[in-house]
Amino acid sequence: MHRRHFPRALALLALVATAATAAAPGATAESPTPATTQLRATIDTILADTRLAGAQASVVVVDTSTGQTLYDRNGDRRLVPASNTKLLTSTAALELLGPGHRFSTDVRASGKRRAGLLSGNLYLRGGGDPTMLAADYDALAAQVAADGVRVVTGNLIADDTRYDRTRLGPDWTWDDEPYYYAAQVSALTVAPDTDYDAGTVIVHAAPADRAGAPPVVTTTPTTGYVRVDNRAQTVSDGETSISIEREHGGNTVVVTGQIAVGDEPASDWVTVWEPTGYAADVFRAALHRHGVRVLGRTVLGQPTPETADPVARHDSMSLGELMTPFLKLSNNGHAEVLTKEIGRMLSGSGTWTAGITAISEYVADTGMDTGRLRQRDGSGLSRRNLIPATEFVDLLSAVRAEPWFATWYAALPIAGQPERFVGGTLRSRMAGTPAAGNVHAKTGSLTGVSGLSGYVTSADGRLLAFSILLNNYLTASVKSLEDQIAVALAGFREGGAPTARVARPAVPETPRTPEGVECSWVKPITC
């Protein structure tokens, strides 16, 4: 792909280069100002930390108004970006699908209907919605009952054909499979709560009333799709150490360890094997509660006939609204669904290949050099993703010109803001510093991989785009080094008049919890 000298958002500013230079006298890449020289020395010192000995670091900082590079350490080096990959996926989704895009899940009927009897099949057709809760399937079942259907002589068909049947992303490691961040992807699925980790159940293990008895194990939502093998024990005292893990190739969840009498329940998110069947199970139970009997069996993966009559429908929140749980909580499942949805909408193929091709074409149009990077999935879980820091900064600079930028900017995690759906994965970082409430950035973490890419407004009002990628370190975490760099950028003052300010968008509302959904506790935020 042809690489532009400036990303699209900076093209017009090239015409006013003289004015930009006047704002920072003497500032050039070869002859930086004293303030820039000091900033570079500060970042160099941070990156000299012994935790990065033998590791790789790629850091780029650019003034988004002038295009001036304030710092560049190995900016062209391709490194594993982890969840910073979601910057490409989320911006492409907003541009190619639109902030108003919604996912629809509907119920259709084929066959003759007479006096509450449907002599035919009932179809549950998935539209890819990663936010479908058990309460939403219950509402669909209520619509079916209200439409007069009481008995279905045929089968319940779970139609997930909007996307392909490849459930796990390219290059994902086998040992991640049971964990919520690596859930299988289907066009028909269930999320257990308003974190919207589709394709998972929450397993709770509560202590029994007496020592020696097994804990009481329940799931959210209640479902017969998951079988529990309870090997744990309630003890009179001692430390609670419960392990909850799904066995490979099926839906048996093994609970081991111990929990003390009187302790709070231990809970964990567990992925299901074949989320289409999980959704069908939840919906079938809801139909039963509403007095609708299906006499036939549940069949997965068959398409809905075009002639089938509509009976019920549920539309998701808008894509603009979905950006908040997606980016704040770094939801991998949302990234992968959006990748397949992009492929489906643009080429008629709901596959990773089609989606990533379309994402690549979009980010190339913004000015990223796609010949110098590799994207393998939507979320960044694949370690074969390789993206240079300078390409992230090009994207960050360019998308400021997009009409949906304010929505996207507000959806990024915000440093030091304790509310989960405001601070997100940065909620406990950089508090009490000039970066708090200022840095809007995407985090990223895998073992030996860390990243932070986004925006910070400097002390003199310059909107800086930055990308920090750290790979191949052996210590537990290098997040504090990223934070030190971000704080240094927030305190940077070049001198002269401010060259760029960004209006602080309104803080997005925390998603509402539907009636009957329990969300009083939360899992630790991942990156």
Could you explain the architecture of this structure?
- There is one protein chain.
- This protein is an alpha/beta fold and about 525 residues long.
- Residues about 1-30 and about 495-520 have low confidence and may be disordered.
- Helices cover about 25% and strands about 25% of the residues.
- About 50% of the residues are buried.
- Belongs to the peptidase S13 family.
- Keywords: Carboxypeptidase, Hydrolase, Protease, Signal.
Report the strand count.
Answer: 21
* Percentage of residues assigned to helices: 25-40%
Quote the average pLDDT: 90
Cα shape: globular
CA-atom Rg in angstroms: 25 Å
Helical segment count: 12
Strand content: 15-25%
Q: Summarize the biggest pleated sheet.
A: 7 strands, mixed
SSE class: alpha/beta
User: End-to-end span in angstroms?
Assistant: 31 Å
**Model regions low in confidence, pLDDT < 50 over at least 5 residues:** 1-28, 496-522
Q: Which terms summarize this structure?
A:
alpha/beta, globular, 527 residues, 5-stranded antiparallel sheet, 25% helix, 21 strands, single chain, disordered N terminus
Summarize the SSE layout with pairings:
Elements: H1 17-23, H2 34-47, E1 56-63, E2 69-73, E3 78-79, H3 86-96, E4 104-114, E5 117-125, H4 134-146, E6 151-152, E7 156-159, E8 200-206, E9 216-220, E10 227-230, E11 233-235, E12 241-246, E13 252-260, E14 266-271, H5 275-289, E15 293-294, E16 298-300, E17 309-315, H6 319-328, H7 332-347, H8 352-366, E18 387-388, H9 389-398, H10 405-411, H11 420-423, E19 440-446, E20 449-457, E21 463-471, H12 479-490
Parallel strand pairs: 5-6, 5-7, 6-15, 7-16, 10-13, 11-13
Antiparallel strand pairs: 1-2, 1-21, 3-18, 4-5, 4-17, 8-9, 8-14, 12-13, 19-20, 20-21
Helix pairs in contact: 2-12, 3-6, 3-7, 3-8, 4-5, 6-10, 7-8
